[in-house]
User: Which sequence fits this backbone?
DNA sequence: TTTGTAATTGCAAAACCTTGCAATAAGCCG
DNA sequence: CGGCTTATTGCAAGGTTTTGCAATTACAAA
């Protein structure tokens, strides 16, 4: 498991510049509970660096996503939430009826990943998914 | 397998009103190749009924989605594409490197669906998914 | 430490989708 | 057919995210 600072290290390794905007965006993600929205990140960044633009936050998030350092997940809230890959791998079951969410271990998706690789030669990026449906309490 | 007209039938059965806006939106979906965007639907509707508003198209799509008559799938294009459920069930593997997409049979997701139901009592709505990753040609 | 260069940012605008509200019209009933 | 009720629509505004472009700045190299 990675720890705080890993994202910064990987950015420098790959030759990306360490701007204050990027550092603060990364800090917000790493210090979050692991499911933070762009707006929430932006609020934290602005509180210490008022003239930062939210589009810079979005561009940093896009970069981190491309580099495989964060995942973005749509929980059906009308906005996406970000998760540092280093903070552990899991998925979510989201009930569309009552809104309840249950964590799902990474291994639940492993068989599917293996089948896609074996039968289609396709390396699926199945990280931090939100799977929608109906939970037991809400019936079939 | 359903055929054209099924969506309209189900709407009336459930007591929804058959407005011209809805009928034209439904026709556009049913006559499409099965992966049509809201903007494309809207263009078709407007060509015959110029004063229709795109928010009405979106509301109809949301309704059809709730009723399980269409699926909406994000292929990573910045907009969602709609598919009439009656036109057959399948998924897509989308290569994030070269953009190639491969169809995947519905059955590939059945084991996962079964596990979620058995072990979590969760009835997952795994219809017409886009699974992102890297295809064989683009390497692991 | 200064300079040069190209990556990065801020800003403004736009794309996609949703929502509140008053006006409209579908379908029921007489 | 005509009126009634309430679902549905159009409009305008707003939320989330992306993008083009000129200005800025991180970092490498002198």
Assistant:
């Amino acid at each position: 498991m990675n720890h705080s600072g890993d994202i910064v290290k990987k950015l420098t390794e790959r030759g990306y510049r360490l701007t204050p905007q990027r550092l603060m965006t990364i800090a917000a993600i790493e210090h979050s509970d692991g499911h933070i929205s762009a707006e929430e990140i932006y609020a934290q960044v602005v509180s210490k660096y008022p003239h930062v633009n939210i589009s810079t936050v979005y561009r940093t998030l896009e970069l981190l996503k491309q580099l495989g350092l964060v995942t973005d997940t749509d929980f059906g809230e009308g906005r996406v939430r970000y998760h540092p890959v280093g903070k552990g791998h899991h998925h979510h079951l989201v009930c569309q009826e009552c809104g309840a969410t249950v964590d799902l271990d990474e291994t639940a998706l492993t068989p599917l990943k293996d089948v896609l690789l074996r039968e289609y030669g396709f390396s699926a990026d199945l990280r931090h998914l939100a799977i929608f449906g109906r939970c037991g309490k809400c019936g079939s």
